[in-house]
Design a protein that fits this description.
Layout: E1 7-14, E2 17-22, E3 28-33, E4 50-52, H1 67-70, E5 71-77
Antiparallel strand pairs: 1-2, 1-4, 2-3, 3-5
Length: 81
């Protein structure tokens, strides 16, 4: 399963990164904000919000940027039981 096939819940938000947990895999993914002049906020990404990532190599960029265009995946670590 690719990270783009997964659904995620927001578990932490900071201005420079978003931490999400995979619904199916339980993997924790830290996403770095590629546009630091536009900080991430809990208003935009409330804890528990369900999101999906789109693959920027297969999705054309739009004027309203998708999460994958604004954020890039830094690390993927499995949750420990």
């Amino acid at each position: 399963m690719s990270i783009f096939d997964e659904q995620y819940r927001v578990v932490a938000v900071e201005s420079d990164c978003l931490v999400v947990r995979g619904i199916f895999s339980g993997d924790v993914v830290t996403i770095i904000n590629a546009e630091p002049e536009t900080p991430l906020t809990q208003e935009d990404y409330p804890l528990g919000k369900l999101i999906v990532l789109t693959d920027p190599s297969t999705t054309p960029l739009k004027l309203g940027l998708s999460i994958s265009a604004v954020l890039r995946v830094l690390r993927r670590t499995p949750l420990r039981p």
